[in-house]
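ENTRY TYPE: paired fold submission
RECORD: A
CONTENT: sequence, then structure tokens
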Amino acid sequence: MKKSLKLFLLIFAVTTATCFSQQKSNLEFLKSKEEKKKDLPFSDAVRVDNTLYLAGQIGMDHSVRKLVPGGIKAETTQALNNIKSVLEANNSDLSHVVKCTVILSDIKNFGAMNEIYKAFFKGNFPARTTFAADLVAGASIEIECIAVVK
């Protein structure tokens, strides 16, 4: 290898290492404010600088710790209201969501879920991935989001 290329690679490596060592992220694990969720092995959200990574939410009414009755539309509404609450508790809101992952227990519920989803996200829609899988607690839907802080 030529001497000039070796020197360039050394300078590049030192410069890159210096830049990355000076960029320290603020990292904060945000536990639930709900007493019944405080001992669960996950955070409601994790904040890295001005980005919030939310844990998945199912259509559970947390006041009674049960899925809401009424099927996919009711569960989608509740899941999105749960997300809204976590966002608001952490200085954000639905208009600052940039990415959602939607997991359905049955992909045939896509249209019904989408109907409710569109009512919560107005104008600019977040990027989204949707797929089907088995879910905890017999849920029909789980939604997780990434958002920025206001």
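RECORD: B
CONTENT: sequence, then structure tokens
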Amino acid sequence: MKYLEGERFRRVPLLAPSLEIGIESGLVSALHFGERRFDIGVEYDTEFLPVIARQATWRYKLAADARRLPFKPGVFSTIVMVHVIDHIPEIDAVLGEVSRVLRNGGCAYVSGAGPRLPVAGPHLKLLHCLGLPGLAKRVGEWLMVRYHQYHYYTREQWEALAHRHGLHLTSFEEFNRGLWADLWVLNHYWFGKKGGYFLFDLLRQSPVGCHIERLFERMTATIAMSQLAYEQRQTAESGNDVFLVLQKPELTRQIEPILNVKAAANC
């Protein structure tokens, strides 16, 4: 899933000044952006600050709340949020702040949960096959709340949200589809750090850990490439995740309708 997500973020032009919101330990940022650098990175959870202090992905790092960013209006040309916005209940507060600190013409690049996620996974498909769609829906919604994923909107819902905060949705891509996406959901929700991830860490720490890690790297690369090829063929299929581009219109575009109305009035 992170490979598919990274394919999109690697295309993002990091026009300065640039800001990444929600950097956590910096592991995903390094994976997605490599040697490229942000001007500023912010993280709400202060326990990550000692870890990211040693990393060079951001010129400056600070603790900050995405709902109350400590920046002047119209500062940034680029804002990036990698699977952050769906974990914050007050989405309007976040989008309001993103719009406020973006320059006119600037873009925010955002990934998050897709509309398919609450109904994804073999466990929910089984409930549907048993004729229990209502129970499947309740289980899916319970899992989303349990893992603090509050927003899984459609394109139309994102367009309405963006418009409410003076932003324009210029791109909406769904990804993470099909069988592997369902298996990822099963591992993420039902095993997680107490299951699959914990077992993986034990294997890495074993005497044959280096060989295990290389094996997993080859397996991951093979799966990622096959999944990428699958998703390129199945573009109409809904996905568990979304990648959005939100643009703050240029000032000339913002006043153009007003000018047109005045010109019509003068005529």
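NOTES ON RECORD B: The mean pLDDT is 83. The two ends are 56 Å apart (CA to CA).
STATUS: closed
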